[in-house]
Amino acid sequence: MAKGRPKKELDSSTESIIKEAARKVFHQKGYAATRTRDIAEEAGLNLALLNYYFKSKEKLFEIITFETLFNFMNTLGIVFHDENSSFEEKIEALATRYIDFLSNEPDIPLFIISAVRNNPESFANKIPIKNMVLQSVFYKQFLEKSERNEITDTNPLQLLLNLMGFIIFPFIAKPIFENVTGTKEKQFQDMMNERKALIPMWVKNMIRP
Amino acid sequence: MAKGRPKKELDSSTESIIKEAARKVFHQKGYAATRTRDIAEEAGLNLALLNYYFKSKEKLFEIITFETLFNFMNTLGIVFHDENSSFEEKIEALATRYIDFLSNEPDIPLFIISAVRNNPESFANKIPIKNMVLQSVFYKQFLEKSERNEITDTNPLQLLLNLMGFIIFPFIAKPIFENVTGTKEKQFQDMMNERKALIPMWVKNMIRP
DNA sequence: GTCTATAGGGGGATAGAC
DNA sequence: GTCTATCCCCCTATAGAC
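ok -> structure tokens follow
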């Protein structure tokens, strides 16, 4: 375990150090506002090394964007395609996993949304997200429920939007929310953990009031 | 009506033209990614005029940010403080107004969120949003309902988060959503209009399942 | 591979003519 | 008030020493 080279990341090669630094800074500030100097400084390395390993700021950004997006969507894919869990279990798993994930990396939603917005076409081509959702076990389970009249005519796309909104929106709105309500970091986190149980309930009430 | 000078905007003074152009470009691309040259071009005017009227890119951005934020929060304030409407009516009014508003200006949520994120302290000082929510008629009506046991112990902050998420999240997620589901502009807009009636229902189910 | 030094270009801001 | 021309800094990228 100590000997076998780790399959990914966390090795201390210069390349990985730069990538980690780039990830951090890009996630925080987005493409336009980050300077390559910020990344070099964050990495504790010289600016010239970025170009040596990654050719340009843009290439480096593309790599980070792809990995971030893939990572994010993969979590969704794994849960959505699980043959051995019920519809309800999937919702609970999704809420729990993503809330834990986003609690550690709250900048990711805004980063992804901005990246896609600035480059919608490249996004569509790189990751087969369409299939990830519309051909998932989750989606099929929803349609089956609907056919068995266990659902009071709810548009599945509205449901999907709300489900993802329940999970993601608080992290996006966090800075404003904390300002408006006077909530502090810890309270916010408590609320997010509360939502792991609340979201499945809300979704249930939504499809079967 | 034609003679009385309009109280605000839409006059064709150079200053207003620049501001409108700045609003458009800043909303679309954010601070870091817009060049003052973009704004000048959008306005059909010379670059030097921006500095003549607004001193610097940063000052111009501050003005746009303040006005955008004020405008957005004001809509919320008006609805939340209405003494003559019920709790349920307020939710419906909020959904309808904001969905119409955001349908015309879908870039605003992301703009505001990014602006606040990059400058949280200046945000808190400029607009008394805290009072706007926590001392609103809306909030009081919620607490009264809660005391009369018309609500099955729902955290008001969770409700607030969900209500705003129902309205705002779709517009933030729009580029990704359209990609993932293959939805087109018109379908998306139909879904948003559908939500004007759905949101009050969802909220109702949330506090009284 | 890693550094220092610098080229090269872009973008915010201003001088000065009209 | 509005324009053209230009300054000058900052940032990305690269050349070249070690």
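Residues 14, 45-46, 48-49, 52 of chain A lie near DNA strand C (CB under 10 Å from a C1').
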